[in-house]
């Protein structure tokens, strides 16, 4: 039980906004009216401020304990390990495999940003001209895009060595997903492009 308590305490996060709201309410209370009742404890507002902090934290902890299965970790308490990296080389080192890159972006790229998720999924964001392309890859065969919107146009096509599913609306496409050599990939662009443009972008992944 003690170990579980320390584990939960390490995960409790009180945002600055939450803290400020609680403390404002405490400091706005008129404790002077009840001052006589507390004289024997020699309390002042600073004592009450500290005590309130402890009460608030313990309330959160014991609420979590009541909701936890003590033999298994609750999914609600799982931490999201998201890290930004300086280069594709650094990103590859973190996820444990060579992260591919996209060469044929249909706009001028001004900035490239690299992220890893949970130490196994790689994400590269290409941005410029107020447009964005998000490329993801990870080991396995599940959809790595995270986009579960319903599209009117869904097609299975070939792009070089890849068998790709492209999704969009009205003959234009925003999303491509595929699996190749035990990896899953996705390419998503924030503005719809033609099938030809999407396939050229997919084929340029290497």
TrEMBL record:
Keywords (A to Z) from UniProt: Membrane, Transmembrane, Transmembrane helix
Regions crossing the membrane: 47-65
Protein name: DUF4367 domain-containing protein
């Amino acid at each position: 039980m003690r170990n579980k308590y320390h584990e939960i305490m390490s995960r409790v996060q009180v945002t600055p906004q939450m803290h400020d709201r609680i403390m404002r309410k405490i400091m706005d209370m008129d404790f002077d009216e009840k001052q006589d009742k507390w004289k024997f404890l020699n309390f002042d507002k600073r004592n009450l401020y500290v005590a309130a902090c402890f009460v608030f934290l313990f309330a959160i902890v014991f609420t979590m304990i009541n909701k936890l299965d003590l033999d298994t970790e609750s999914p609600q308490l799982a931490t999201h390990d998201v890290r930004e990296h300086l280069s594709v080389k650094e990103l590859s080192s973190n996820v444990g495999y060579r992260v591919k890159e996209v060469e044929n972006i249909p706009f001028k790229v001004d900035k490239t940003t690299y992220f890893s998720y949970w130490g196994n999924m790689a994400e590269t964001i290409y941005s410029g001209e107020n447009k964005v392309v998000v490329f993801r890859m990870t080991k396995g065969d599940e959809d790595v895009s995270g986009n579960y919107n319903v599209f009117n146009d869904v097609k299975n096509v070939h792009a070089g060595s890849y068998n790709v599913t492209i999704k969009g609306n009205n003959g234009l496409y925003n999303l491509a997903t595929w699996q190749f050599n035990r990896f899953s990939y996705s390419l998503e662009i924030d503005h719809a492009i033609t099938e030809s443009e999407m396939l050229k972008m997919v084929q340029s992944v290497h």
